[in-house]
Amino acid sequence: EILSDSGKSVSSNTAYPYAAGKTVYLKLTASSELAEGAKPSVKITSEDMQELAEGENTINQKAEDVTEQYAFFAPSESGIFKFELADSTNCSIYVSDGRLYAGSDKKLVLDKAHPAYIRMAVAGSSNSASAKIIITKLADIGEISAGGSTDVTLTKDNNLKFYKFTAPEDGVYVFETGELSTQVYVNVGNSISDYDLDPDINYYGWQGAYAVSVEKGDVRYIRIQEQKGNLETGDDTFTLTCKKAKEVNFTGVDSRKLSLNGGEPVFVSWTAGERGSYRVGFNSTNRKELRYTYFSDRKDSFGSFGHTNSGDFDLDYVSPDGGKYFILEAIEQAQVEVYAEKAPR
Fold it and tell me: With contact defined as beta carbons under 8 Å apart, do 327 and 174 qualify?
């Protein structure tokens, strides 16, 4: 939207675009000039907005006294759309939160519930303002939910896919393709950039799996890509899954024994509690292979997944609130001990 959902200062005779069904709360504050006994009020009127479609659209000034005019674009399915200003006369064009200039473009992630709003600002006293806008769909965006999965097929001509995820609750989520031995790369971000849209950008993200820490309501976009050269001899079909990791927390010199089911990730959080040097690690007591992320200093940042049945990391002079964080996932049922001990001298 052109304006944020909160903190708006409503001015007299100002138009604000909203999607159908949108709930808006207005707070009226009386100024010191308001006469005693008088009540502040607001008058709300509505006017139709021109609906735009994929392809070429023309917006013409409705009447001579119109200084601003709105249109909207609400695609029936989620996707990434490009807006181009092909021509304009006696006006400036704004798409969502920024001005659209001739010779440049603007890319937005949109769906029916999150449309784009287009504002035509008429120049001076013109009565013949117009603009021609071209809207092009660049890519589809699928949906994936916590605990859900979706089948993905990459081809030589379509080696790039996008998915949208909305966190139902706080936690660490792992997105996996089950393709840790091939060249499928997974990247998760807050938005989709021009860089993300390039199908020839290879080795971007982590191979086969990507973990993120998010809060309830956060939206993340998942990019799935494979080199075109790998697809010369045939398509690659696999399943993308989203798993919420169980959490295990412990502090200081201590350990936890875990019984892990195959395919269920666990987020391990260790805090020092007191200053010192420590060795933090894990060990599969029944020697089963585990997938794991490298030991991280941050609980919201994880590296690529590797394979092993044990691992450890030495920390020197860690502060009381310092710690290490990592994710474990058993390939098949495994007994695992996670531990922290004083580092050997």
Answer: yes
